[in-house]
Amino acid sequence: MAMLQPIDTVPAPFRPEPISQEEGGALFRAALNLFGRWGVTDEQAAVLTDMPVRTYRRWKAEGPGRISRDGLARLSNLMGIHKALRIIFQEPQRGYDWIKAPNAAFGGASALQVMIGGELTDIMRVRRYLDAERGGW
C-alpha cells in the first residue's frame, strides 16, 4: 500500500521575467509617443522617467542608453496606465485628455500632477486607481 504524500497547497509566488534592455528600449520609444499624445513637456517626461532633462533629450534624439531597473518599472507602469485608459475610454483622445484633467480622486490634482511627484510610487498610484476603475487588478 502506498503512503500518502503531503501536497504543497501554497502556490509559488508569481515572478515575472525581468524586462530586457531590448524590451526597455521598445518601452522607451512607446513612451515617447505617449508623452506626445499626453502633451508632456521634456521636463515632465524627464521626471516621469527619472533622469536629467539633458539625458532625456539625448535619449529622445539618439535612442536610449542602459535603462535602470527603476526606469524599466516606470516605463512598464506608464504603459499600464495607457492600456487602462484605452480600455476605459472608447475614444483614445478622451484617455489622453484625462491625464491632465483635474480629478477628485487625487484631491483635484490631475493624474499628471500626481505622477510628476517624482517617485515610482506616484506613477503606481495612478495605475492602481485606473486598474481599480476598470475592474481589473
H-E order: HHHHHHH
When the domains are counted, the total is 1
Uncertain runs with pLDDT below 50, 5 residues or more? none
Strand residue percentage: under 5%
Number of beta strands = 0
First CA to last CA: what distance? Answer: 46 Å
Class inferred from helices and paired strands: mainly alpha
Total number of helical segments?
A: 7
Largest sheet, described in full?
A: none
Q: Layout of helices and strands, plus pairs?
A:
Blueprint: H1 21-38, H2 42-49, H3 53-62, H4 69-88, H5 92-98, H6 111-115, H7 120-133
Helix pairs in contact: 1-4, 2-3, 4-5, 4-7
Describe the structure.
The chain has 137 residues and is an all-alpha fold. It has one domain (21-133). Helix content is 60%, strand content 0%.
Keywords:
7 helices; globular; 137 residues; mainly alpha; 0% strand
What is this structure, in a nutshell?
The protein is built from 7 helices and no strands.
